[in-house]
Design a protein that fits this description.
By secondary structure, the protein is α/β, with parallel strands linked by helices. It is built from 22 helices and 18 strands. A 6-stranded parallel beta sheet has the order 2-1-3-4-6-5, sandwiched between helices.
Length: 546
């Protein structure tokens, strides 16, 4: 069997359904081996960054590694942003790159870059296949490491001469990997700290929505009455309709939810990644008592020094905690946090749009939330709208809102929508972005149209890099270098052969959103927004001196 054929057999054994990528001369053998696969569908994209974002979002939504493919040189370098996003957002991803023949890698040659070392800082592991007899081990290791906790990106490259060689190996079958149980001493210490607390609070992060963690967290909250605040990437760990939810924390400013963090005498972090939200924001005096529950030990960090660390499978730790609190009948009075929740909900309501008024992101979110079902998927790009989605958009199910907040890369939403619809074709999928992020990967609309996936693209247009403007205004009272101009986005959408909307009043906006989202057809809605609401929020939070 040719090495390129064996690689495809290995990918089939790993359960791969899609490969997102771009063909090139140096991955030609792999492409034709892929053509013969009865299981794997190749999705040709318009730019390799789109492919890596698709693999990134697919991995994050399914828990199975998304796969992206590129050729050598510029093809490989174009993958980097999406691979790095998967690395910091803890999404399982396997990147495959072609390479020139191994007999020219020792010298300067056409498009020759040291891709393995280039990918080293943004992957859990990567390698070059320099010998046909290591193929099966390399691929099994790439998928095992990408999918095991904490998930992330891996990569391997395939030189074109190796791809043509013969090899008699067979794919290595994946085995179920059992994750470690919590240490009983650490568990006992955590239970004792919880028993002594008066106002414990859970901070649910990215790891709280993976595996069975969300289910067991909801049981724990129901039994103990401990309130929960999530990070932007932990949204949906418990339902925001649950009275124990204090929604999300993510602003650098002191939002209403910070009052709960200040009042609490014990913070229980569950699946919390420091890359999501720096602990000095919520623990500035370094006085908080912390119980750390995660797949890995806590980062050594001046503002994050837990009293005890339960290092194990998160759902396993929560299972044991549930048994312990049930046995000892540990339950708290959570009435202290209810006024904070009431204040947050009142603040959300204040942003509803009115007839004759200008459109704002938080106002649009109210309408979209009413149209979307609890398990439907919203994918946020990065910009000022991301802050509002993280802060104001209620979430009811885990993994129903995807926000990149580790690398926080613009341009993820349009390609991410393709991955979401392929992973869950029965669900309504909405992608939201600013005009800046939209035009970074808008070419992937052609990919979506060509392969027949239907989702809604919402572009908030303020002709500005709005988040940077917001921050610059907060620091200096003015902005510089952020203003943009844009094409007619409705006509731009129509040039791809999809429906475009440009609502001019509230009734048109509501009708456009409902028609586009419920049709589950590929469409774009351009919404001109008033960005002054951003600065108004900053001023409001400063004046309240929470």
């Amino acid at each position: 069997m040719k090495v390129s054929d064996l690689i495809i057999k290995c990918l089939e054994t790993e359960g791969v359904k899609y490969i997102f990528g771009l063909p090139g001369e140096e991955n030609e053998d792999l492409m034709f081996s892929l053509e013969a696969s009865p299981q794997i569908r190749f999705i040709p994209v318009r730019m390799e960054q789109g492919a890596s974002f698709m693999a990134d979002v697919y991995g994050r939504l399914t828990g199975k590694a998304g796969v992206c493919l590129a050729t050598l040189g510029p093809g490989a370098t174009n993958l980097i942003t999406g691979v790095a996003d998967a690395h910091l957002d803890k999404a399982p991803l396997v990147a495959i790159t072609g390479q020139g023949s191994s007999d020219r890698m020792h010298k300067e040659s056409h498009q020759n870059l040291d891709i393995v070392n280039m990918f080293k800082p943004i992957t859990k592991w990567n390698a070059s296949i320099q010998n046909p007899h290591i193929v099966t081990e390399v691929i099994r290791k790439a998928f095992k490491l990408a999918e095991m906790e904490k998930p992330g990106a891996t990569h391997f490259e395939l030189p074109e001469d190796i791809a043509k060689m013969d090899c008699a190996l067979k794919p290595i079958q994946p085995r179920v990997l059992r994750r470690p149980s919590p240490d009983y001493k650490a568990l006992d210490l955590a239970v004792n700290l919880i028993k002594k607390a008066e106002k414990p609070l859970i901070l649910a992060g990215n790891g709280a929505i993976r595996k069975l963690a969300s289910k067991h967290l909801r049981q724990f909250v129901s039994r103990t009455n401990i309130p929960v605040v999530s990070t932007f990437m932990g949204k949906g760990a418990i339902s925001d309709s649950d009275e124990h939810s204090l929604f999300a924390v993510g602003l650098q400013a002191r939002d209403y939810v910070m009052r709960a963090l200040d009042m609490s005498d014990l913070i229980i972090t569950i699946g919390y990644d420091i890359a999501e939200y720096a602990p000095e924001t919520w623990n500035p005096d370094k006085k908080q008592k912390i119980v750390h529950i995660d797949f890995l030990p806590a980062e050594v960090y001046e503002y994050y020094q837990p009293e005890v660390e339960i290092v194990s499978d998160v759902s396993g730790a929560l299972w044991d905690l549930n048994l312990a609190v049930k046995k000892e009948n540990i339950k708290f009075d959570h009435s202290w946090m209810l006024p904070i929740r009431k204040k947050i909900l009142e603040d959300f309501e204040s942003y509803r749009l009115e007839d004759g008024g200008e459109f704002t992101v938080p106002g649009v979110l109210h309408i979209v939330r009413e149209i979307m079902n609890p398990g439907d998927i919203l994918i946020s790009d990065v910009g000022s709208h991301k802050v509002w989605i993280g802060r104001n958009y209620p979430v009811y199910e885990p993994n129903s809102v995807i926000i990149s907040n580790g690398l926080a890369s613009m341009g993820i939403a349009v390609p991410g929508g393709i991955a979401a619809k392929l992973a869950y074709p029965e669900k309504q999928v909405v992608t939201m972005m600013g005009d800046g992020g939209f035009l970074m990967n808008s070419q992937e609309i052609e990919t979506a149209k060509r392969i027949g996936v239907g989702y809604t693209i919402i572009v908030f247009n303020d002709n500005d890099y709005g988040l940077i403007s917001w921050k610059q205004h907060g620091h200096t009272g003015k902005s510089f270098g952020t203003m943009l101009t844009n094409p007619d986005l409705k006509r731009y959408a129509e040039s791809f052969g999809i429906k475009g909307y440009a609502p001019g009043n509230l009734n048109q906006l509501k009708n456009s959103l409902r028609e586009a989202i419920t049709s589950q057809e590929l469409s774009l809605i351009e919404i001109p927004i008033q960005p002054s609401v951003n600065i108004e929020l900053s001023r409001k939070l400063e004046q309240n001196q929470i």
